[in-house]
Known about the structure:
The structure is a single chain. The protein contains 14 helices and ten strands. It has helices spanning 3-32, 70-77, 111-123, 143-155, 172-178, 194-200, 209-222, 243-249, 282-291, 303-308, 333-336, 338-342, 349-354, 363-366; strands at 83-87, 128-132, 160-165, 184-188, 226-233, 253-258, 298-301, 311-313, 318-321, 328-332. By secondary structure, it is an alpha/beta fold. The strands form two sheets. The chain has an eight-stranded parallel β-sheet with strand order 7-6-5-4-3-2-1-8. Strands 9-10 form a two-stranded antiparallel ribbon. It is globular and about 45 Å long. The model is unreliable at 1-9, 16-21 and 23-75 (pLDDT under 50).
Amino acid sequence: MPLGLLVRLPLAVARAVLAALRGRLGALCWSLAPLSLPLPLPLPLPLPLPLPLPGRRRVSAPSPAAPAGPRRERDDASPTPTSVNYHFTRQCNYKCGFCFHTAKTSFVLPLEEAKRGLAMLKEAGMEKINFSGGEPFLQDRGEFVGKLVQFCKQELKLPSVSIVSNGSLIRERWFKKYGEYLDILAISCDSFDEDVNVLIGRGQGNKNHVENLHKLRQWCREYAVAFKINSVINRFNVEEDMNEQIKALNPVRWKVFQCLLIEGENTGEDALREAEKFVISDEDFEQFLDRHKDVSCLVPESNQKMRDSYLILDEYMRFLNCRKGRKEPSKSILDVGVQAAIKFSGFDEKMFLKRGGKYVWSKADMKLDW
Length: 370
């Protein structure tokens, strides 16, 4: 064989290997790129590259379908974020005396960062997202939460997207723009007596909270959004009989909470509220439930059920652990990933299922007479 050919042969082999390696790395980049941020065509890779030596077997990373060994075992040990409550803002236009997620900051994530975190949660197994606050409709007059709702339903294809609001800032134009993407709208209403609402901190000046509740109920019917009511039972409403009003409104669910104390939020030296005067006993709560036992949509939640059975994300997308009676944050999922952060959430997945946390939560499956 001519000497020149012997010299050129290894160079040709190296070039062929380099071309193949570029193709594989380019395909890998495309497969890992988020759908919402398409990557440009793969650029030429800088030299030198580590090339496989002749006669040595090249070791590849396991394919996505293959078990990942010890790492997969650690992931399986973490709870699945099936249903997540994202309190993306702490700001509110009400001053409810028992509020346990108060306005300690004014921070709100940029929209695209919030979307990135929601996509990570979907990848980790999230099926339902609930947007809360604070008051979700304060931020950009409801446009911020509207865009998140649309993203979660249209892009992430989540089975259930819901909002908890006091209802005071919602306008019909919001339903026209975003109603089709929302499964459930939950309105907080603790009393059907306006004087009691004022005592609690839900006063709207000249506006009537109960009248607004009925208006929102009608809009939900017109724009095919399931209507839900949340009530916190406390010292000021524990004797109230709400049977007639709840049956007339006919929500898909009436979530009834026992007033809960959280250190640093509504009790303690560094708290923004003093909720002690709102607290009721377990016996008082049970008597209220017994008085309303014939309401078919009633979903009761005592302090014991509520404290550890919710996955709560704060405005920085940190899971909040309430097991010690105060909210202790994990690191942000945007920094460490969902699986690493959720281990510090204190989430009791068994209690979540026991309290009925997973239910028919997609409006497409509710078969309601809109």
